[in-house]
Design goal:
17% helix; 3 strands; OB fold (Dihydrolipoamide Acetyltransferase, E2P); alpha+beta; three-stranded antiparallel β-sheet; 94 residues; single chain
Length: 94
Amino acid sequence: MMKKCMSDPSLIIPTEDIGIKDNLSYEEIPVQILDRQIHKLRTKEVASIKVLWRNQFVEEATWEAEEDMKKRYTHLFESRKIPNQGTNSLLSTL
């Protein structure tokens, strides 16, 4: 059985505060670099960084190409030391 819904105007959150666009999408913003790895291929080396994104947990961090992230988000690399190689570098800083 359907019931009538009574709206409460105090519960409405303006979309400008969240950053939702007209097409109901939003841009994730990187918050911190958690780890760094260099993958050695036959002819070159590819640097990757583990990025923590806004509104996500550490377990949901993703590996991104360091070169691409430097182009798009230069503020992450300014005056900030990137952790050494290894998977437990975050744990050693805690």
